[in-house]
Amino acid sequence: MRSCRAISALVSQGLDKELSLRERFSVWLHVMMCTRCRNFQTQSRFIRKAARCYSDELQSRLDKKS
Amino acid sequence: MLLTGSVAMTDTLLTEQTLAAQRPVLFRYALLQLRDSELADDAVQETLLAAWQSVAGFEGKAGLRTWLIGILKHKIADHWRRSAREAVAPVFDRTDEDDGEAEVDDYFMSSGHWNGGPKGWADPEAALKQQEFWTIYEICQNNLPPKMANVFMLRELVGLDADEVCREAGLSDANYWVTMHRARLRLRECLEIRWFNNTKQEQQHA
Protein backbone atom coordinates (compact mmCIF):
# COMPACT_ATOMS: atom_id res chain seq x y z
CA MET A 1 0.00 0.00 0.00
CA ARG A 2 1.53 3.30 -1.05
CA SER A 3 1.36 6.41 1.12
CA CYS A 4 -0.60 9.59 0.37
CA ARG A 5 2.72 11.28 -0.35
CA ALA A 6 3.54 8.74 -3.06
CA ILE A 7 0.02 8.59 -4.46
CA SER A 8 -0.34 12.36 -4.73
CA ALA A 9 2.99 12.50 -6.58
CA LEU A 10 1.68 9.89 -9.04
CA VAL A 11 -1.54 11.84 -9.46
CA SER A 12 0.53 14.88 -10.34
CA GLN A 13 2.69 12.92 -12.79
CA GLY A 14 -0.43 11.46 -14.36
CA LEU A 15 -1.34 14.94 -15.53
CA ASP A 16 1.84 15.16 -17.58
CA LYS A 17 2.53 11.65 -18.76
CA GLU A 18 0.92 8.27 -19.16
CA LEU A 19 1.33 6.23 -15.98
CA SER A 20 2.06 2.52 -16.10
CA LEU A 21 -0.81 0.12 -15.60
CA ARG A 22 0.46 -0.76 -12.15
CA GLU A 23 0.73 2.91 -11.17
CA ARG A 24 -2.76 3.70 -12.42
CA PHE A 25 -4.13 0.74 -10.53
CA SER A 26 -2.51 1.79 -7.26
CA VAL A 27 -3.82 5.34 -7.67
CA TRP A 28 -7.30 4.06 -8.41
CA LEU A 29 -7.28 1.71 -5.44
CA HIS A 30 -5.97 4.35 -3.05
CA VAL A 31 -8.21 7.16 -4.22
CA MET A 32 -11.30 5.00 -3.75
CA MET A 33 -10.61 4.84 -0.04
CA CYS A 34 -8.82 8.13 0.65
CA THR A 35 -10.90 11.31 0.53
CA ARG A 36 -7.94 13.63 0.76
CA CYS A 37 -6.10 12.08 -2.17
CA ARG A 38 -9.37 12.04 -4.09
CA ASN A 39 -9.71 15.76 -3.35
CA PHE A 40 -6.14 16.30 -4.49
CA GLN A 41 -6.89 14.52 -7.74
CA THR A 42 -9.99 16.60 -8.51
CA GLN A 43 -8.32 19.78 -7.39
CA SER A 44 -5.13 19.32 -9.40
CA ARG A 45 -7.29 18.78 -12.49
CA PHE A 46 -9.23 21.89 -11.57
CA ILE A 47 -5.98 23.85 -11.19
CA ARG A 48 -4.99 22.81 -14.70
CA LYS A 49 -8.32 24.03 -16.01
CA ALA A 50 -8.08 27.25 -14.02
CA ALA A 51 -4.57 27.92 -15.36
CA ARG A 52 -5.84 27.61 -18.93
CA CYS A 53 -8.81 29.86 -18.22
CA TYR A 54 -6.46 32.32 -16.55
CA SER A 55 -4.29 32.36 -19.66
CA ASP A 56 -7.38 33.20 -21.75
CA GLU A 57 -8.54 35.70 -19.18
CA LEU A 58 -5.14 37.39 -19.22
CA GLN A 59 -5.21 37.59 -23.00
CA SER A 60 -8.61 39.26 -23.07
CA ARG A 61 -7.67 41.62 -20.25
CA LEU A 62 -4.49 42.70 -22.03
CA ASP A 63 -6.43 43.07 -25.28
CA LYS A 64 -8.85 45.47 -23.63
CA LYS A 65 -6.01 47.49 -22.19
CA SER A 66 -4.33 48.13 -25.54
CA MET B 1 19.76 15.89 -57.43
CA LEU B 2 20.55 15.22 -53.83
CA LEU B 3 20.36 18.93 -53.00
CA THR B 4 16.94 19.51 -54.51
CA GLY B 5 15.76 16.44 -52.72
CA SER B 6 16.73 17.74 -49.31
CA VAL B 7 15.33 21.22 -49.98
CA ALA B 8 12.02 19.74 -51.02
CA MET B 9 11.93 17.78 -47.81
CA THR B 10 12.51 20.85 -45.65
CA ASP B 11 9.75 22.58 -47.57
CA THR B 12 7.22 19.93 -46.73
CA LEU B 13 8.32 20.08 -43.10
CA LEU B 14 7.78 23.81 -42.82
CA THR B 15 4.60 24.80 -44.55
CA GLU B 16 2.69 27.95 -43.68
CA GLN B 17 0.18 25.81 -41.82
CA THR B 18 2.72 24.08 -39.62
CA LEU B 19 4.16 27.46 -38.69
CA ALA B 20 0.75 29.02 -38.12
CA ALA B 21 -0.24 26.10 -35.90
CA GLN B 22 2.51 27.14 -33.45
CA ARG B 23 1.24 30.70 -33.24
CA PRO B 24 -1.05 30.34 -30.18
CA VAL B 25 1.69 28.79 -28.05
CA LEU B 26 4.23 31.38 -29.15
CA PHE B 27 1.74 34.14 -28.47
CA ARG B 28 1.04 32.95 -24.92
CA TYR B 29 4.77 32.65 -24.30
CA ALA B 30 5.38 36.19 -25.56
CA LEU B 31 2.39 37.59 -23.72
CA LEU B 32 3.55 36.28 -20.35
CA GLN B 33 6.89 37.96 -20.88
CA LEU B 34 5.85 41.20 -22.52
CA ARG B 35 2.49 41.68 -20.78
CA ASP B 36 1.14 43.50 -23.79
CA SER B 37 -0.85 41.83 -26.54
CA GLU B 38 0.27 44.15 -29.32
CA LEU B 39 3.94 43.74 -28.47
CA ALA B 40 3.44 39.99 -28.14
CA ASP B 41 1.72 39.86 -31.49
CA ASP B 42 4.55 41.80 -33.13
CA ALA B 43 7.19 39.56 -31.60
CA VAL B 44 5.38 36.44 -32.81
CA GLN B 45 4.95 37.82 -36.31
CA GLU B 46 8.62 38.72 -36.48
CA THR B 47 9.46 35.24 -35.25
CA LEU B 48 7.32 33.51 -37.85
CA LEU B 49 8.71 35.75 -40.57
CA ALA B 50 12.28 35.05 -39.48
CA ALA B 51 11.50 31.33 -39.36
CA TRP B 52 9.98 31.48 -42.80
CA GLN B 53 13.05 33.23 -44.18
CA SER B 54 15.56 30.91 -42.61
CA VAL B 55 14.01 27.53 -43.19
CA ALA B 56 17.56 26.27 -43.68
CA GLY B 57 18.34 27.04 -40.03
CA PHE B 58 15.81 24.51 -38.92
CA GLU B 59 17.42 21.13 -38.60
CA GLY B 60 14.45 19.37 -37.13
CA LYS B 61 16.59 18.01 -34.34
CA ALA B 62 15.20 19.88 -31.38
CA GLY B 63 11.67 20.08 -32.71
CA LEU B 64 9.94 22.90 -34.48
CA ARG B 65 8.52 24.56 -31.38
CA THR B 66 11.85 24.62 -29.56
CA TRP B 67 13.44 26.23 -32.59
CA LEU B 68 10.68 28.83 -32.86
CA ILE B 69 10.83 29.65 -29.15
CA GLY B 70 14.57 30.14 -29.55
CA ILE B 71 13.89 32.77 -32.22
CA LEU B 72 11.09 34.31 -30.18
CA LYS B 73 13.39 34.70 -27.18
CA HIS B 74 15.76 36.75 -29.32
CA LYS B 75 12.88 38.93 -30.50
CA ILE B 76 11.78 39.49 -26.92
CA ALA B 77 15.34 40.28 -25.84
CA ASP B 78 15.56 42.76 -28.74
CA HIS B 79 12.42 44.40 -27.45
CA TRP B 80 13.84 44.84 -23.96
CA ARG B 81 17.05 46.25 -25.37
CA ARG B 82 15.15 48.75 -27.51
CA SER B 83 12.85 49.88 -24.76
CA ALA B 84 15.62 49.74 -22.15
CA ARG B 85 13.12 48.91 -19.46
CA GLU B 86 15.69 47.19 -17.35
CA ALA B 87 13.52 47.25 -14.28
CA VAL B 88 11.55 44.34 -15.68
CA ALA B 89 13.54 41.14 -15.48
CA PRO B 90 12.96 38.40 -18.05
CA VAL B 91 10.30 36.12 -16.66
CA PHE B 92 11.63 32.75 -17.72
CA ASP B 93 15.26 32.90 -16.64
CA ARG B 94 14.94 33.01 -12.90
CA THR B 95 16.19 30.60 -10.27
CA ASP B 96 15.02 29.71 -6.79
CA GLU B 97 17.25 29.64 -3.79
CA ASP B 98 15.89 26.66 -1.91
CA ASP B 99 15.70 23.54 -3.98
CA GLY B 100 15.48 20.71 -1.47
CA GLU B 101 12.91 18.01 -0.95
CA ALA B 102 12.02 19.67 2.34
CA GLU B 103 9.11 21.58 0.95
CA VAL B 104 6.98 18.64 -0.15
CA ASP B 105 7.54 17.27 3.33
CA ASP B 106 5.66 20.21 4.84
CA TYR B 107 2.50 18.83 3.33
CA PHE B 108 2.97 15.31 4.69
CA MET B 109 3.74 13.70 8.01
CA SER B 110 6.64 11.29 8.37
CA SER B 111 4.20 8.41 7.98
CA GLY B 112 3.44 9.65 4.46
CA HIS B 113 -0.09 10.76 5.40
CA TRP B 114 -1.35 14.23 4.60
CA ASN B 115 -0.56 16.87 7.16
CA GLY B 116 -3.92 18.61 7.07
CA GLY B 117 -4.44 18.01 3.39
CA PRO B 118 -7.06 18.67 0.75
CA LYS B 119 -10.56 19.42 1.98
CA GLY B 120 -13.59 19.28 -0.27
CA TRP B 121 -14.21 22.40 -2.37
CA ALA B 122 -17.71 23.71 -2.92
CA ASP B 123 -18.49 24.28 -6.59
CA PRO B 124 -15.08 25.11 -8.07
CA GLU B 125 -16.61 25.54 -11.54
CA ALA B 126 -18.61 28.52 -10.28
CA ALA B 127 -15.40 30.18 -9.13
CA LEU B 128 -14.11 30.33 -12.70
CA LYS B 129 -16.89 32.77 -13.53
CA GLN B 130 -16.08 35.18 -10.72
CA GLN B 131 -13.70 38.07 -11.23
CA GLU B 132 -12.63 37.99 -7.58
CA PHE B 133 -11.50 34.41 -7.98
CA TRP B 134 -9.01 35.44 -10.67
CA THR B 135 -7.52 38.05 -8.35
CA ILE B 136 -6.96 35.33 -5.77
CA TYR B 137 -5.66 32.92 -8.41
CA GLU B 138 -3.15 35.52 -9.54
CA ILE B 139 -1.98 36.16 -5.97
CA CYS B 140 -1.49 32.43 -5.42
CA GLN B 141 0.39 31.99 -8.68
CA ASN B 142 2.62 34.97 -7.87
CA ASN B 143 3.34 33.45 -4.47
CA LEU B 144 5.13 30.52 -6.05
CA PRO B 145 8.93 30.78 -5.96
CA PRO B 146 10.04 32.35 -9.28
CA LYS B 147 11.55 29.30 -10.96
CA MET B 148 8.66 27.09 -9.89
CA ALA B 149 6.26 29.67 -11.28
CA ASN B 150 8.14 29.65 -14.61
CA VAL B 151 7.96 25.91 -14.93
CA PHE B 152 4.29 25.89 -14.00
CA MET B 153 3.44 28.69 -16.43
CA LEU B 154 5.39 27.18 -19.32
CA ARG B 155 3.48 23.95 -18.87
CA GLU B 156 -0.02 25.11 -17.93
CA LEU B 157 -0.35 28.63 -19.34
CA VAL B 158 1.86 28.53 -22.42
CA GLY B 159 1.00 24.89 -23.07
CA LEU B 160 4.44 23.38 -23.75
CA ASP B 161 4.89 19.62 -23.36
CA ALA B 162 6.72 18.36 -20.28
CA ASP B 163 9.93 17.60 -22.21
CA GLU B 164 9.85 21.03 -23.87
CA VAL B 165 9.54 22.63 -20.43
CA CYS B 166 12.56 20.62 -19.25
CA ARG B 167 14.64 21.93 -22.14
CA GLU B 168 13.40 25.49 -21.63
CA ALA B 169 14.02 25.56 -17.90
CA GLY B 170 17.07 23.29 -17.91
CA LEU B 171 15.49 20.69 -15.66
CA SER B 172 15.99 16.95 -15.38
CA ASP B 173 12.91 14.74 -15.56
CA ALA B 174 13.04 14.10 -11.83
CA ASN B 175 13.30 17.80 -11.03
CA TYR B 176 10.42 18.53 -13.33
CA TRP B 177 8.07 16.10 -11.55
CA VAL B 178 9.01 17.43 -8.14
CA THR B 179 8.67 21.05 -9.24
CA MET B 180 5.26 20.59 -10.84
CA HIS B 181 4.01 18.58 -7.89
CA ARG B 182 5.12 21.24 -5.45
CA ALA B 183 3.55 23.96 -7.56
CA ARG B 184 0.23 22.11 -7.51
CA LEU B 185 0.43 21.47 -3.76
CA ARG B 186 1.15 25.13 -3.12
CA LEU B 187 -1.48 26.49 -5.45
CA ARG B 188 -4.01 24.07 -4.08
CA GLU B 189 -3.36 25.10 -0.52
CA CYS B 190 -3.37 28.79 -1.32
CA LEU B 191 -6.67 28.58 -3.22
CA GLU B 192 -8.18 26.55 -0.41
CA ILE B 193 -7.17 29.03 2.27
CA ARG B 194 -7.90 32.21 0.36
CA TRP B 195 -10.91 31.25 -1.67
CA PHE B 196 -12.67 27.98 -0.99
CA ASN B 197 -12.61 28.14 2.80
CA ASN B 198 -13.78 31.72 2.75
CA THR B 199 -16.58 31.48 0.25
CA LYS B 200 -18.02 28.20 1.47
CA GLN B 201 -19.78 29.87 4.37
CA GLU B 202 -21.22 32.66 2.26
CA GLN B 203 -22.54 30.24 -0.31
CA GLN B 204 -24.27 28.20 2.35
CA HIS B 205 -25.99 31.23 3.79
CA ALA B 206 -26.83 32.81 0.46
Globally, the shape of chain B reads elongated
Structural class of chain A: mainly alpha
Of all protein chain pairs, which has the greatest interface, and how many residues does each chain bring to it? A-B, 37 and 46 residues
Strand portion of chain A: under 5%
Quaternary state of this entry equals heterodimer
CATH architecture of the largest domain in chain B: Orthogonal Bundle
Residues in helix, % of chain A: over 70%
In DSSP terms (H or I, runs of 4 or more residues), the helix count of chain B works out at 11
Number of strands of chain B: 0
Q: How many domains in all of chain B?
A: 2
Distance between the termini of chain A: 55 Å
On the 0-100 scale, what is the average pLDDT of chain A?
91
Strand composition percent of chain B: under 5%
3D architecture notes:
The complex is a heterodimer of chains A (66) and B (206). Chain A is mostly helical and 66 residues long. Chain A has one domain (4-65). Chain A has three helices and no strands. Chain A has helices at residues 4-14, 21-33, 35-65. The termini of chain A are far apart. Chain B has 206 residues and is mainly alpha-helical. The interface between A and B is large, with 37 and 46 residues.
How do the strands and helices of this protein lay out in sequence?
The complex is a heterodimer of chains A (66) and B (206).
Chain A: H1 4-14, H2 21-33, H3 35-65
Helix pairs in contact in A: 1-2, 1-3, 2-3
Chain B: H1 2-13, H2 16-21, H3 23-34, H4 37-53, H5 64-83, H6 102-106, H7 124-127, H8 131-142, H9 146-158, H10 162-169, H11 173-205
Helix pairs in contact in B: 3-4, 3-5, 4-5, 8-11, 9-10, 9-11
